[in-house]
Design goal:
Residues 12-129 form the Response regulatory domain. The protein is an alpha/beta fold and 131 residues long. The chain contains 5 helices and 5 strands.
Length: 131
């Protein structure tokens, strides 16, 4: 009698960025680390995805986006009883200590400075998803 082990499903990351280039970069970095990635181009679309798929293990979002900033998305996620446990990581090309502190105080797990590197992704995933 043999027992089959069912592989663990890949952790699911929602990547949010209005830049197609940045979405592609972060998506490739995450996929190369064996994560399932859904990419969207706005905070509004991210909330739509989250309303349909509760199996998201982490959100990584750009800070500066039109309509809804990454900070606004962070606040909406952390205010939601259903979503507040999902870790949110913000990223920006601007290294603004005030902005970074504000995001961390609002509940962000981390704040990455672009360009995001493979070492950032592995550190993040080990610290945030695997905890």
């Amino acid at each position: 009698m043999s027992t089959k082990t069912v592989p663990e499903p890949e952790p699911h990351v929602l990547a949010v960025d209005d830049s197609i280039v940045d979405r592609t970069v972060i998506s490739r970095l995450l996929r190369s680390s064996k994560y399932r990635v859904t990419t969207v181009d706005s905070g509004k679309r991210a909330l739509e995805v989250l309303s349909l798929d509760r199996n998201v293990h982490m959100i990584i979002t750009d800070y500066c986006m039109p309509e809804m900033t990454g900070f606004d998305l962070l606040k909406r996620v952390k205010e939601s009883a259903e979503l507040k446990e999902i870790p949110v990581v913000l990223m920006s090309s601007e290294n603004s200590p005030t902005r970074i502190r504000r995001c961390l105080e609002e509940g962000a797990e981390d704040f990455l400075i672009k360009p995001v590197r493979p070492s950032d992704v592995s550190r993040l995933c080990n610290r945030v998803i695997m905890k």
